Amino acid sequence: MTTQKIYDLIGVGIGPFNLSLAALIEPLDEVDALFFDQTDTFEWHPGMLIEGMDLQTPFIADLVTFADPTSPYTFLNYLHHHDRMYQFYFFNRFDIPRKEYNKYCQWVANQLKDCHFGHKVIDVKDANTTKPCYEVTVQHTATEQTETYFCKHLVLGTGSVPNLPPGFEDYKNEDVIHTSQYVHSAQSIKQGKAITVMGSGQSAAEVFYDLLLEQKYYEYELTWFTRSGGFFQKEDAKLGKEVFSPEYVHYFHELPFQERLDALETLDPLRNGVDPKTLQAIYHLLYNRSIDRDLAVTIQPTTEANGIKARDGGYELSCKQWQEGHKFTYPTDKLILATGYKPKLPQWLEHYQDEIFWEDEKRFKVSKDYRLVFKNERPNHLFTLTNIEHSHGASATNLGLSVLRNQTIINTVVGKDIYPEPSKAVFQQFSQQFPR
Ligand SMILES: Cc1cc2nc3c(=O)[nH]c(=O)nc-3n(C[C@H](O)[C@H](O)[C@H](O)COP(=O)(O)OP(=O)(O)OC[C@H]3O[C@@H](n4cnc5c(N)ncnc54)[C@H](O)[C@@H]3O)c2cc1C
Description:
26% of the residues lie in helices and 22% in strands.
């Protein structure tokens, strides 16, 4: 079926970023939009929905509140509709369980008629029509039938995919998994006699903690290796966290490319590392367990794994303690790679490869209002919420500023300040040239 109508906007992918955009657009007469996701229902990183783990951002950074606290799609309204207000009041915390954030997003997604799941966007190109617009080919995942839609503007929100280190890309099976598969594979993983977790970010710590908790019901030895120099917590100071603010995003975007890359490294302690609560929980559990038994646990930093091969019904990791320069092999039955994610960029972007500006071979130039920058300026925009760390800084993958990005996009699409942006979000100033 071909639909000739031209929508104002089509969103590719419905993770929290585009879901927030859909929720903010829903009450607007000015924007006729459609959103597609290849999965059958909204699921937020389902392989990492480990019981007891919290969202790393306060609930106030929900899908809409920063732009419009009166929206029906706030987290508080979700609680109200599920008769959980009083329990939340007694819970008395800003950080909510990740499982509940997922439920909340599902509740919003189910109400938005413009969100279509089970639809994979397989191509986007300039339409051969009199009015400039994009032609979007969408495949129904159940029937494999394709449909074509047209839109003035497109918003890329395809998120990320697991980042597997060299030597491990081809070794994915039920014994060797990325953390993104953890919940789905946990039962089989726990049957191993030796389990190794590689990495030291939040996901690594959550998986290690879950395996440590469960260890008493199974017979496995548990190992935690990381290439990092230690198991560090994420910086949590309130003043430091002001870099996750509209002001910092504007400041960052004005910097030259190399200065931006350098700034990201400087901000590393605020961006990477483990939530102090998780590290504390791990230590407390280790301490308590060690009272009356020898721990079947090895924890070692400064250690990288460079390869894996099958051996004696299990596996042998090629490892190196890089500080000492000591190479060794390490037997394991199961391996969990907590090696992070990288942006998922669709194949069809190649159509625009030569038409847009790039900052280096992988990172496209992105305007302040999240447009890819075309060499020949065009009225119909290709916005992106994906792969913008180099252009918009530390908060690019953070839920906290997702609403702000969507406010900006909506204001550009409509041509007026439908959702005015905040002017005073922080106490500090970042630029000498543009004081607050
Ligand atoms: C385990 C984990 C926990 C995190 N916790 C936090 C946190 O607590 N706080 C925080 O601020 N940030 C957190 N983040 C970072 C960030 O908020 C999330 O990654 C967030 O999900 C990003 O949203 P997104 O919409 O960009 O992408 P995603 O959530 O990855 O969604 C992208 C969607 O696009 C769809 N898609 C991809 N290609 C196509 C296509 N061709 N056609 C149709 N659909 C497509 C996918 O199916 C997917 O549903 C976390 C990240 C991870 C991995």
